[in-house]
Amino acid sequence: MNQPLTHSTIRPLRTTRCLHPVRKLLALAAAAAAFGAQAVPVTVSIGGLPPGLSPVLTVQRNVCPDGMGFKSNPSQDLVEQTLTTFERITLPGGQLTIRPRLITRYTASFDTPATPAQSNDPIEVQCSRVGINADLFRFGLRLSGANGLGQAATLSGFVADTPQAGPIALNQTLSARTRNLTLVNQPQATMARGMVHRVTADFSTSLGTVQSRTLDLLRPSNLFFGAFTRVARLFERDDGVACVLAGQVTRCLGEPGPVEAGGVILRGFNRNGTARFDFELAQSFNPGSVRLSASANASDLARYVVDASLQQIDLLPWQAQSLDVTVQ
């Protein structure tokens, strides 16, 4: 069981100029008064990101003068808070050990104006009053860094939609992960050779966009307990074309001849919505235990502002999902 320490480390951001707290509260109060809107208290805690970043929380509220749109409220700089916990770990030999783990979260507490119930501004119309939608806040995240050319750039992503009713407690953990890995129409998780199989998976990332979807076929290693060796890989190229790779052989859809490598024949690939891999196992593919592992990459910036300097980091390491099957 995790045992948090009795203290934590809080680091305010150093790279973004902030208003004095009193001036900031006065500015928010003035904005709320100008809108004729109620100020809604918000507390935010966002995890999943590495330490040292300079994240900014963006806040929008929907308005519905003629269809739904969004207006921007003042954004908020987030403050880094690092907590050390102890975790009990079971080693491969069965021994138990205790290891420290750092948990980083980015937090803020502030008030933000809601869309006013009455206003002389024709743009300031509550969506609930005209029956288009509920009145919502939309929270996002913005990170600063540089692109591959060394030019200043930002990465933005969606965090959550919430009703415009306070108090709001926003507690989110960002991730890049695979979900719902499924071998279609095979409830016993068996794969027969000589027939086409379909594997589906959902890929999602909180920041950036999903790219390079991959399905690996792995076998248990004969040398190391608990390790796996890749037999073949089905993957999506940067141009969206699907390929199969085994050893030094790569074959892609659209090329002449069979799209086969390592006894795996790629039949089709679709990435719209839920990704779909269609493939056949040739008779030359050895039977036995196989692990299917689905992963991807998230497009993001080349470098990020970390502790006031540009650094190359893995912003959201991809969390793959696996499924054990038996080839017959």
List the keywords.
328 residues, seven-stranded mixed β-sheet, 1 helix, 24 strands, 57% strand, disordered N terminus
Structural notes for this entry:
This protein is mainly β and about 325 residues long. The protein has 2 domains: about 170 residues, no CATH class; about 150 residues, Immunoglobulins (Immunoglobulin-like), CATH 2.60.40. Helices cover about 5% and strands about 55% of the residues. It is built from 1 helix and 24 strands. The strands form 4 sheets. The protein has a 7-stranded mixed sheet, with no helix packed on it. Strand 3 and strand 4 form a beta hairpin. The chain is globular and about 75 Å long. The N terminus is likely disordered.
Number of domains: 2
Mean pLDDT: 88
Note the overall shape. Answer: globular
Q: Into which percentage range does the β-strand content fall?
A: over 45%
- Which oligomerization state do the chains in this entry correspond to? single chain
Order of strands across the widest beta sheet? 11-24-20-13-14-15-16
Order of helices and strands: EHEEEEEEEEEEEEEEEEEEEEEEE
Count of DSSP H/I helices: 1
List strands and helices in order, with pairings.
Layout: E1 3-11, H1 21-35, E2 39-47, E3 56-63, E4 69-77, E5 79-90, E6 96-113, E7 136-146, E8 152-163, E9 168-173, E10 176-183, E11 190-191, E12 196-205, E13 209-220, E14 228-236, E15 242-246, E16 249-252, E17 260-261, E18 264-270, E19 275-281, E20 288-299, E21 303-306, E22 309-311, E23 318-319, E24 321-327
Parallel strand pairs: 2-9, 10-23, 11-24
Antiparallel strand pairs: 1-5, 2-6, 3-4, 3-7, 5-6, 7-8, 7-21, 10-12, 12-19, 13-14, 13-20, 14-15, 15-16, 17-18, 18-19, 20-24, 21-22
